[in-house]
Design brief:
Elements (H helix, E strand, L loop, with lengths): L5 H29 L5 H5 L5 H13 L4 H22 L5 H21 L6 H14 L4 H13 L3 H12 L12 H9 L3 H14 L1 H24 L6 H7 L1 H20 L12 H30 L3 H4 L3 H5 L1 H16 L12 H25 L4 H11 L8
């Protein structure tokens, strides 16, 4: 370990985190690319083989609801690190971050229209602007705000109230789409009809964006900002040394609950109680979040404390091109599941999509390494940088 120059190690481990998050995001997203939300329940019921049932359990235990918080935390950490650096040079301006987030927002809207309506980067762009106002707050306030945003219990009723106030009916956007019509459009229909469906499906899922994804993302942004302001990314090794016991206790307790929730609670009468049920789901939500953040702790532990760091080191390549690889995964999805490509929509089982996502991520790892051998940035990372600074940076090494 090079104690004289920890900066390279610090950047590498953050890129490893990002690469790992990009992998997990794809494993989850490819399930939705293979079958849109409105068709999920009937589609999933047909896969009853032991292999597929075990794959679903694997996804529930280790993937679902774990990687979106990680991705959000790392995004918040990245923004805060850049903002703090600019603040030290008395150059922290809203205009700078406004340009960065505007590019990201436009990219997210294009992603929704032309590739896949499950985009999150437009949401990150909107929430990212708020971080500039949060940076001056005391660290303790940022942490408290992160926890408050995470555990606030009234997002659903507020969402319902806003929809009633504005006469917004999310279900109306999908009324004309039967299950068969959705399958026909996404598998065989003209590309223009799939664009229209993506718009309607996005609008139908806006309550989910407001009551679940938005608060979770902002909470993780704030937590990432807290880490950035405390410079904890520079002291990860010390943090790993000091946090063994509390982390292990959290992991053990959260996993006992997660296993109980998945395998025992659904068969009990109390699970169906209308007052207890929200509590069970909120606790599961927090347990999944804890386990997702544990992944980062575990990667850092492997990196600093074991001889296996070479096993996770390749993750830094897709991590350095996280934005490009995130969008590329949606291009894969378009080519695999629509009539533009193979037309496999609703044809793959959970075990097949899991294997496919893993295989395609390996190709991303390989081409990212090759690309970064010759270029300083990923293609979209380069465009984002040029747009933000208003000048052309050298791409080729």
């Amino acid at each position: 370990m090079d104690l004289k120059n920890p900066i390279n190690q610090r950047i590498e481990i953050l890129d490893i985190f990002r690469g790992f998050a990009v992998f997990g995001i794809f494993v989850v997203n490819i399930e939705i690319m293979n079958c849109a939300f409105p068709n999920q329940e009937t589609f999933s019921d047909q896969w009853t083989s032991p292999l597929d049932e075990w794959t679903v359990r694997l996804l529930q235990l280790f993937f679902y609801s774990k990687f979106f918080p990680i991705f959000s935390f790392l995004f918040g950490l990245g923004i805060s690190m850049q903002a703090i650096k600019l603040q030290k040079n008395d150059n922290l301006k809203f205009l700078f971050f406004g340009k960065r987030m505007f590019f990201l927002f436009l990219l997210g809207i294009a992603h929704i229209l032309f590739l896949w309506d499950g985009d999150v980067i437009h949401l990150y762009a909107l929430l990212g602007l708020l971080i500039v106002g949060v940076i001056p707050l005391k660290n303790s306030w940022i942490l408290a705000l992160s926890i408050l945003v995470l555990v606030f219990p009234y997002y659903d009723p507020i969402s319902v109230w806003l929809m009633d106030l504005t006469h917004f009916e999310p279900r109306s956007f999908l009324q004309v789409y039967t299950s068969e019509k959705i399958t026909s459009i996404l598998r065989n229909g003209p590309y223009s009809e799939s664009i229209l469906f993506r718009i309607h499906n996005y609008l139908a899922n806006l309550p989910l964006l407001f009551s679940y994804l938005g608060p979770l993302a902002f909470s993780m942004f704030l937590l990432g900002t807290y880490f950035g302001k405390n410079n904890l990314q520079n002291w990860l090794e010390n943090f790993i040394n000091q946090s063994h016991k509390p982390v292990l206790w959290v992991v053990v307790l959260s996993n006992i609950y997660r296993l109980t929730f998945l395998f025992i609670l659904p068969n009990t009468e109390i699970y169906r109680n209308e007052f207890a049920r929200p509590f069970f789901f909120k606790t599961m939500y927090l347990s999944d979040l804890a386990f997702g953040l544990f992944y980062l702790w575990l990667l850092a532990y492997i990196w600093y404390k074991t001889p296996w760091k070479k096993l996770i080191s390749p993750l830094k390549y897709p991590g350095k091109m996280a934005l490009t690889n995130y969008l590329m995964q949606s291009i894969y999805g378009l080519m695999l599941f629509s009539n533009i490509g193979l037309g496999w929509y609703e044809k793959l089982s959970p075990s097949q999509t899991f294997l496919l996502a893993t295989s395609l991520f390996v190709t991303q790892l390989i081409y990212s390494k090759i690309w970064l051998t010759y270029y300083h940035f990923g293609p979209l990372e380069w465009l984002w940088r040029c747009f933000t600074y208003g000048k052309t940076f050298r791409l080729k090494k």
